[in-house]
Write a structure and sequence with these properties.
This protein is an all-alpha fold. Helices cover 68% and strands 2% of the residues. It is globular, with a radius of gyration of 19 Å.
């Protein structure tokens, strides 16, 4: 990374950390933050499981085993955030019953972060059946490494003198620990395929992409005056009455 990119990385990471920590700390924005985290963590499971099957078919049993653990961790993370929402008498909104935007009916909403992060890649190239292994490993390594730090920051803004928040803090810290482990195996997987110099180069490339993606996300956040669509609704889903082990203790 050149000096300018390093500076932008620090600025972008600091701004994102401030936004996410503030949204987690504020009782009014916490439910939406928890819902977005639940959707992100749970939503990655099918992708990882398809990659696991692909790795096994290609004979990389080591990577298949790591991806199995990764998928199981992400499933548990989704349960942690879903449980936190239930304690607030909230649940993720049922998008099947949500009317599509009149402005762009029938078109999926674009994510400015991922549009910038994966610039130059087509949707077909990003499918788990087709994505280049190096691109997957390096891009996900950066996301997992940074997420591990972001989750610690979010946990640290929660008070410990209130049972629900204290329990959530423990859960988020366990998520952070898992993300650190994911980053470690992803880097090891890169090192199994590339020389040390090549690993550093590809990680540097995706770090630069992450900086650009963060700036795009922050710009979009400012344009929308910090507002985002609601992802939650009142009520607790009856099929999710059991608390995950990480939060039940």
């Amino acid at each position: 990374m050149n000096f300018l990119t390093q500076v932008l990385h620090l600025v972008g990471s600091g701004a994102a950390a401030f936004i996410t920590a503030r949204n987690m700390r504020d009782p009014l924005t916490r439910p939406n933050t928890l819902a977005s985290l639940q959707l992100a963590e749970s939503g990655s499971v099918p992708f990882l499981e398809t990659l696991r099957d692909r790795a096994a078919t290609e004979g990389d049993l080591w990577l298949a085993e790591k991806l199995t653990r990764h998928a199981n961790d992400e499933r548990r993370h989704g349960q942690i955030f879903a449980h936190a929402l239930r304690q607030l008498n909230k649940q993720v909104i049922d998008f099947k019953n949500t009317p599509k935007s009149v402005e762009k009916a029938g078109e999926p909403k674009r994510n400015p972060f991922f549009d910038a992060y994966f610039e130059g890649y087509t949707s077909a190239e990003l499918k788990p059946e087709a994505i280049d292994w190096i691109a997957f490993l390096a891009s996900t390594y950066i996301l997992e490494l940074d997420a591990s730090k972001d989750f610690v920051r979010m946990a640290n803004v929660l008070p410990e003198d209130e049972p629900v928040s204290a329990n959530l803090k423990k859960g988020i810290l366990s998520v952070a620990s898992d993300e650190t482990g994911h980053a470690a195996y992803l880097r090891e997987a890169l090192e199994r395929r590339l020389t040390a110099g090549e690993v550093d180069a590809v990680i540097d490339t995706w770090r630069t992409r992450k900086v650009n993606a963060m700036l795009a996300m922050i710009s979009n956040f400012i344009q929308k005056s910090g507002k985002s669509p609601s992802l939650v609704q009142d009520g607790v889903p009856t099929e999710m009455s059991e608390a995950p082990a990480a939060l039940a203790a």
